[in-house]
Amino acid sequence: LFGVAGKVGTLDALMALSDELAKLDTFTESVMVKVYTYMATALEENDQQKLPDYTKANGKDLRTYCNSFSWDVAKFPTKLSIKEIHDIIAKNLTKIEKDFKTKSNTYNTLRSNLAQHEKKESGSLVTKNLGPLVKEEDFVIASEYLVTVCVVVHKHGYKEWEGSYWKLADFVVPGSSVKILEEGEHAIYTVTMFRKTLEAFKNNARERKFVVRDFQYSKEKIEQQKNDVNNLLKAKNKAYVPLIKWLKGNFSESFVNWVHVKALRLFTESVLRYGLPATFMTSVLEPNKKSEKKLREKLHALYANLDKSAGTEGPDMGDIPGIFYDWRLLSYVYFDINTNF
Q: Which portions of the chain are predicted below pLDDT 50?
């Protein structure tokens, strides 16, 4: 049976192991799907076409690997008991899952922080970062009494602003308002006033639907923001290649382990169903969707004599979405392997 020759043990041990292998099957598949899904979303746009090449098992496409499958004695020595092989696979997948959480969380943090910075650089003038958009000469710098603020004005309010900004509070410097940038539906005006009147100016501006941005020009802060973005981008780019390499390698490792779990389950359930010695014929079948129902009817006709208690297959059983065959209802033992990634 695929070269599986692990120590069988007692019938009671096999029955207990049957449940453990079913849980391991589900766990292994879930880890594999997590790795695949994350790799598909983590790949940069110009690398998306490489995804099929990154979802292979031991260098083979998944269908070829399954169709040419043989037990990997080096990974899982057949001198060990089935329980010991189960434990090896469980340990492998537990480590992959743990490492996946660490690596994906680290990369997610980098992506999230970078996305936050990029978000500040996009959007309208009401919300975006003003640092890259303004110049030092647009502001009164290092004055104890005066302050220059940036005000976002909608295009329909340009005339109103230009004709009334100095009336929004006392001690606003007449003639100090300058339109420094126009973008989309809005423009940024600078205006200079005495610091003591700033809060009154903000309140009155808000009533007129003028948005006073909470921004004070600082050359050092602007440079620091640029450095932060550059450092995040470098860190993300540095982490990208090793991450994809790890995801690619561990998708393969997960799939290989998963197929071995399927083989173990097939062996174990066959012994429980048909007894020893383990003289079973094992095949990998890959029917197309149109012929699957006919194939199952043929298999049932061929092997119905093996298990008189097995149920018969209803004529429409395979045509109902979401309904899957239960091998325990059949006269033969089978398990599905999904290769559609």
A: 1, 5, 314-325
Token pair belonging to 256: 């290989």
- pTM of the complete model: 0.78
**Which of 130, 247, 242, 224 is CA-nearest to residue 181?**
130
Tens of pLDDT, residues 313-326: 544 444 434 334 45
Question: Radius of gyration over alpha carbons of the chain, in Å?
Answer: 34
Distance (Å) of CA 53 to CA 50, 245, 260, 277: 5, 12, 22, 41
On the question of a cis peptide bond just before residue 277, with omega within 30 degrees of 0, the verdict is: yes
| Residue 208 backbone dihedrals phi, psi, to 5 degrees | -90, 5
pLDDT of residue 319: 44
The Cα–Cα gap between 24 and 263 comes to 12
Rounded Cα distance between 280 and 286, Å, is 19
Handedness of CA 127, 192, 179, 161 (dihedral sign): positive
Instruction: Compute the distance between CA of residue 168 and CA of residue 185 in angstroms, rounded to an integer.
Output: 23
Per-residue tokens: 47: 């690398």
Percent of the chain with pLDDT over 70: 90
Residue 216: what are its φ and ψ, rounded to 5°? -125, 130
**Per-residue pLDDT reduced to its tens digit, 26-41:** 999 999 999 999 999 9
- Report the helix count and the strand count for the chain, using DSSP H and E: 8, 6
Q: Give per-residue pLDDT as tens, 54-109.
A: 999 999 999 999 999 999 999 999 889 899 999 999 999 999 999 999 999 999 99
Q: Token digits for 321?
A: 């979405």
- DSSP characters for 44-109? -GGGGGGHHHHSEETTEEHHHHHHT----TTTS-TTSBHHHHHHHHHHHHHHHHHHHHHHHHHHHH
Q: What order of strands is seen across the sheet that includes strand 146-154?
A: 178-183, 186-194, 146-154, 211-212
| Contact assessment for residue 83 and residue 226, using Cβ atoms and an 8 Å cutoff | no
